[in-house]
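Please check this protein record:
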Amino acid sequence: MLNQDPPAGKFMIDPYLEWTKGEGVPIHEDFGFDLRTLPVAHWARYGVPGCIAHVKGRGDFMTIFVLEIPPGGKTEPMRHFCEDAVIVISGHGATSVESHNGGKHSFEWGANSVFAPPINMRHQFFNASLREPARVAICSNMPAAMNLFHSERFVFDNSFTFPEREGSATHFQGEGDFIPVRPGKHMWETNFVPDATNLELREWAARGANSAHIQLILADSVLHAHISEMKVGTYKKAHRHGPDVHVFCLSGEGYSLFWYEGDKDFVRIDWRQGWVFAPPDMMYHQHFNTSAQRTRYIAIGHGSVRYPFTQNMWKVYRGVDVDVKSGGNQIEYRDQDPRVHQIYLDELKRRGVEARMEEFMK
């Protein structure tokens, strides 16, 4: 009979989770969150109130930190051996980033700005308002870094620099470089998007209802990021992929349905600006715009179109808009559960919004 007692010493440790317990801030766990209202507490490391948000499908590589910068306040200067993508949930302020050669980049942000301090470059956030707090969400691959090195000192007190990650000075000023590939893979390379709700996107009809899309290459990082838009009265085709992809709503309102193959019922999440969720591993999900305006969201995960990082992400990029019947991971409108379309029509009728899906259902 096998001995069921654990061995002496270290055994079955998750260094990232152990680290979070020592940070002294609230740790929230759920299928999805309204990041505007999550309770926060003073986070000594950052010098401002904050919390940690673990969504159901966060996987092995990604996490979310939420910081609330008080009126006129600022965070502690920070550098770390992991990569971040920052989404401004509310408020306005500025960020300074120290260059590898001693210079400094500064830029101002507002709600729905997206930016990424290059890896291990010291940076600091400032709230420009003297009346209102500013709240930001940091989508980070800290779990990957902490679990790989299991050394807080290595992650936060490491002087190694990556000059090649800094990019052009204009990338800190809201400018970028468009890199054409093909629909669904076109890239915008930058470090700072001043307003993600108005960044120019490119049509990606294969994902449904003439939706629009752009891949972001942020600070030459391994983090995946893309912005997608659904027009009024439309919804996307269902698809599935691995975990780690965090979806943040930037504008409008809507809902998403989630189910595993063979499930009889759907899980539904209603969202609007400030919400985040992450579909669990290979769980089908489908996004619906129910508002009288276009809806945008940004998805952030681990493994970009430039650096897929894992074989799983290679497969995702190859099959994200390919019919599941042909070996991909997308369900075409003609093959979806009939309830999906009827639920949408009923929701739009309740809201007084006109459906515009007929031309895409043929």
Remarks:
- The chain is about 15% helix and 35% strand.
- The chain has two domains: 16-162, 170-360.
- The chain has a mean pLDDT of 95.
- Helices lie at 15-21, 142-149, 152-156, 163-166, 311-319, 338-351.
